[in-house]
Input
Amino acid sequence: MVLKNIKYAIRNITRPPVTRMYPEKQSELSDRFRGLQILDKSKCIGCGICANTCPNAAIKIVKAPIAPGSTKQRWFPQIDIGHCLFCGLCIDQCPKGALSSGKEYAKGLVKWKHKDLLITPEKLAREVDLEEGDEK
Output
């Protein structure tokens, strides 16, 4: 067994390393990768089809301001990322194409408390910072 491992190590000593240095070096993502959803508030009609389609019931329709600093409110989806499967059914079923898939998979998603994983319409529209929750 030891000789077998030494033989394997000698054979692979000239090959380049395969270890990825994450998070210092980000991995390249494929075009089909589904990260955190992005909401286009101008296209969203608040119909709730995304919430009805979600298999985990992670999407809830809530009232939110239509723009930062505005007093007018409309219905927008709010996603509990702790329960989201990233299956893409909400994006596929959106009749106006208001939801799309982004490439974020670490920023804003790594939290210690489950209540911090609630992605509000402002965070979905990227009107506030995903990590801090502060306005840009």
